[in-house]
Specification:
single chain, alpha+beta
Length: 187
């Protein structure tokens, strides 16, 4: 999933293109997580995650993860060993703790993001909402085919363009603010 428009590429075609040309295919699966998309099953060689985000989920760790066939991961590890890219034991503990709750957190975040996207899509101040769970999203059908969940990332554009966005980000005269009672709650 791209940032900020949350676009979905033809991922099996990307992996096939790389394979046909003997290229190593690498995908950043941070936004989808292993719960929503399994890139190795779709032909990718390596999968990277910013473990700082969903995998950890507690805002107390900076880490990354690389997954793939053992031989490929050994090549990556060899490079990282020379650059000093390894986690200390406490960071590993924090990441393991986060992984224990990934399923419940991610499923709820996906459900909440879809509710917010549906709300914003109907809002009079919003010109466009970018979330693959919406039927209006250009790659909605592809997302339904590839992903178990649509993800928790979304973006939107206000009517009135940059000026309206600047007013909204400053909190002045923002007509798109969600009243507290309208924000879907995860609890």
């Amino acid at each position: 999933m791209t940032n900020p428009l949350v676009r979905i590429a033809d991922l099996p075609a990307v992996a096939a293109f790389a394979r046909e040309r003997r290229l190593v295919s690498v995908i950043d699966n941070t936004f989808a997580t292993p719960l929503a998309f399994r890139p190795l099953r779709h032909g990718f060689d390596l999968v990277v995650h910013s473990a700082t985000k969903y995998l950890n989920g507690h805002n107390d760790l900076i880490a990354g993860a690389v997954m793939g066939a053992a031989a490929r991961v050994r090549e990556v590890k060899h490079t990282l060993d020379h650059l000093g890219g390894s986690l200390d034991p406490h960071a590993c503990f924090l990441l393991q703790r986060g992984l224990k709750t990934l399923g419940v957190r991610f499923r709820q975040q996906c459900a909440t993001a879809l509710e917010i996207a549906q709300f914003l899509e109907k809002h009079r101040a919003v010109a466009r909402v970018n979330h693959p769970g919406l039927a209006s999203h250009p790659q909605h059908a592809r997302a339904r085919e590839l992903f178990a969940y649509f993800g928790a990332m979304l973006s939107f554009e206000l009517k009135g363009g940059v000026e309206a966005a600047e007013r909204c980000s400053r909190g002045s005269a923002c007509r798109c603010t969600l009243p507290a009672w309208e924000v879907p709650r995860p609890w």
